[in-house]
Amino acid sequence: MGVEYKDIIKSVSDNQFEILYNIQKLYLNSEDYECDPTYSKGGYYGKGGEFNINPPKHKFDVFPIAEGVIEIEPLGKWPLEINSLKSINIDLPFVCSGSVKAEQLQDPHSCIIVKRFQGYYPIDNLFKSYRHFLYNAFKYLQPGGFCVFKTQETISGRKKYMTPFWSWKMAEELGFYTIDSFILTAKSRLIGAIKKQEHSRCFHSNFLVFQKPDGKATTRQIDYDKLCR
Questions:
Q1: What is the Cβ-side half-sphere exposure of residue 219, based on CA atoms within 13 angstroms?
Q2: Residue 222 pLDDT more than 80?
C-alpha cells in the first residue's frame, strides 16, 4: 500500500519543527540528531508538539547560553572524534551588521534583528564561518552521515547575497552530496525602520540536507557541469 496524500512529506512548511521532524523521518530512521554546534538556547528541541525534536547528545556553541553547552572557538576544532557522527544540525546566524551603537540599543525601532540574533561583520566573515562549519561537519560525520544546514539570504551594504546557493555550492566543493531542500515560510518578520526598500524582504529560510559519501554507488551524485554542456 502506497503513501496516502495526507501523509506526503512536503518541501514547504511554516513550521520548522515539522521540517526537522520530517528530515529525521526521511533520512535518519527517525533517530535523534547527534550534534548541534550552534545550539544557543536549544530553541529547536524539547518542543514542537507532535513534531517534537529531542536534544542532541553533543551540544556546542561559540556563545553558549544554555546549561551543559560546550563552548567552541569560531574557527576551531570541535571536541569530537573524526568520522564519528551520523547527523549534525547547523543553524548559523544570517545577519550581517556592524556594532550596535548605544543610542541604537535604547531605540526599540533600531537594529531589531541584530539585537535579537548574533551576526557577522563584514560579510566575508559570514562566508568564512559558513565554510568552516561545513568543513567540520564533513570531517566529523561518518561516511553516509547527514548534515542539516539552515540558512537564509543575507543583505549587507545594500547588496543581497544568495547565501543558500553559496552554501550549497560550498558544501559540494567540500565533498557533500546535496540530497534535499526544504523551505520554511514565515507569516511575519522582524522589520526595522526602512527609508527606501531596495530588495525583496525575505519571508523564508532554507533547510539544506547534505550527505557525506559512503563510497557506494549512488544516484545522488550529479555532474552538473556535464549536464550543462
A1: 0
A2: no
